[in-house]
Predict the structure.
Amino acid sequence: MDLMKELTRNAEQVEILNLQTETTTIMFEANQLKSSSVAQTRGTAVRVIRGGRMGFAASSDENAVMKLASNVLESASYGDSLDFKFPSSLPAQEVRTYDSKIMELSIPRLVEIGRNILDLILPVEPDARINLNIKRSVQSVKLRNQTGLDISFERSPLNFELEIDRIIGDDVLIIFDIMGTTEWIDDNLGFVGRLVEQLKMARRLTTMRSGNMPVLFSPFGALALALPLSQGLNGKNVYKGVSPMRGRVGEKLFDEKITLRDDGTLHGRPGSAPYDDEGIPHKRNVLVENGVLKGFIYDLRTAAKVGVESTGNAERGLFNQPEPSSTNFIFQPGKTSVKEMIASIDEGILVESLLGLGQGNIISGAFSNPLALAFKIEKGEIVGRVKDLSIAGNVYDLLKKVEAVSQEAEWVYGTFHAPYVLLPQMNVFTKE
Amino acid sequence: MRDRIQEALKLSNADYTEIRIEERESTRISYRGRDLENANAVIDKGGVVRCLLRKHGWGVATFNNLDDLKNKVEQAYQCALVAQSDEPITLGSAEVIEEYIHADMQHDFRDVSMAAKKSLAENYNNIILGSNDKIIDTNSVYVDSFSHIYFANSEGTYIEEERPSVIVATSAIARDGDNVQQSHESYAGPFGFEFVQDRDDMPRTAARRAVELLSAKSVSGGQYPVVADQMLAGVFIHEAFGHLSESDFVYENPKAREMMVLGRRFGRDILNVYDDGTVPGQRGTHRYDDEGTPTRHNDLIKQGILVGRLHSRETAAKMGETVTGNARAINYRFPPIVRMTNTAIENGTTPFNDMIKDIKLGIYACDAYGGETMLENFSFSSGHAYMIRDGKVAEMVKDVILSGNLFTTLQNIDAIGNDFKWLTVGGGCGKANQVPLPVGMGAPHIRIQNVIIGGQ
């Protein structure tokens, strides 16, 4: 059965998405290569607009095409009334998402890369226990709709998920990072060095007082600031009226050192592709420029609700309808060096990672988290790790006054690019 | 299907091989505000082959195309050859099982029309929308899922099981100026449509609480005695303690083994904690786990002492303990790993009023809003909370986030309520990308001394 033909007979608009992925994974558990796997998945997701109402259905069973067709039409009879059109073909920027060098990595070569990573850590940190997944995928995406739009592209994500535990007596430290790329980089193990550096620095322990003091967020730590903002900048929360930034485009909401972008057109990044998951070309969207709110991210549905254009930020899995989502989220680097920033602090802390990020009422901007890894800065120098600290505040207040943003910036957790950010005053609590 | 699976198993050259095939159909209705966002059905069908080569390790192949199972067995075997475990891997012994388990639903949701499911969700959603003009947004969801699972291994076990699941959940979001607050309520269980009908209290509670939170003040940070309700106590014992008793956390880690050594005192004599996959009607209940091991009652803490932990066949053999029936997988895309089933703090003897009557200044924390643990450190937010003043529950407070060290906190539990209940909430547990796994949680009220509460 030709699904497109069948459905266009019954609905005004039809969209068919075919996804196919093959992922090869090797898993090191506690420094040992304990398993490897190959996962082949494929499936079809369909949306129709029939009588002005949206229907959705999906299936991973390719013998169930008839059922898929009847499910999507039934879904449309209960669906949401929506005033939008699936896009016709629009020209997109060239975005590199596939690299044959990644595809050609043999399993023995992946094992060798894994061993190299262990060799970077274990000689320096013999007490470390490493869990490492190396995942290499090839994904093919094919999206068609009734306008004749027919997009297909392939992606070759290579991901390293690295977690290191170190337990020495009662001193417990767990750190992790995810490195992702779709283009082979010769020096792709830099992230390992950063984690090893953290482990080394964390060997010296010190204590400090509670109080109001300067807080320096590392690129990892800056996620605590970015997470509430990325929710507030999401068109879905704007349309629903829950974003504190709704209706404030053009206003200066933050310190002028803050510029935020969403950019799905960067070559080789995990969040990149020529098109979003509804066939809209990816763009470079400036969201906050020098502290001034410029705009939000939207997919077709939320854009139609608000009365604007999609920004090309639709994201979906096989079994879910698209939602607005950031592609690669970029906090623009500034002018100060990290060295200068640390040197400027008489008494303060460096935040590397927080526990329980994303919990609580974060859409309001409020956060309150214990610090999983933080260092004390005294008289312009990092003097040691401090345990049992926590910080709390509201990013909408805190980011009105930013002391400095670093020149140096890093990709963390795959799709977030951030500098070091220094806030002049924040509440820091210790247990005592 | 059985013949095809068993034929493919016969061809395996591995020391141990298992095949799990899953056919699942699921319906989802969701409202956000006045918009119906989803009213749809999905079909998911696929399988996983897992092979063990003792001297190497595990190989896993997952797939949607079921046409060539023999080829997938070969693929999993090739994957196992790649692994290079330091020591040979053995499996805890398991009896050979042959069983067909049918779902027990009073009102099979597969016989209920999409229209009826939609009007159920719409009714709950409308209750929230109509309850107060400060309500600006909602999230109301109905989800059912029916899986038919075929499991067989090279030792001769063959199990077919039907697994139904039904969930209703509502969130109410209220706003007053820049102040936005929300509250969430849900019901879920391995039942039919009957389980989620006539739950009008659920959206009413969510709406009332979201509006109440608008006028709640932020708690001031500090150390307090905290009384946790059944929900928060249940989530706490699952998150902060339960995960540490999953043996894959300790079996390869001598330091963690030391920390979790059996016989260590974890709490006072009043504290008893267990995990039990056999409790009728709970979300983590199954007759067998996803390795075909029968589930059972496992004591974890008995009179304050650590007495047990949860195992897969691999971790049980490695640690020289018996299998417990805790190897679980969320679906065919994953191999089973050590997971909890239904985890609970056993009922105690202290009535709620006795628990609070001597507290001059403390917090009554209810509901869990999220949380994270990192080894013995944890952080949880409660959904809503009240101050306790001079032995009485007083005004509502918000932004109550509890954090601390697990061992100190368990030792500081100095009263256990006599009002045990199993939670019937939706959601699920996440571990190693396998989320959401349905689990059961239960507890009475508990009182904990000296809890650190974050605050502005």
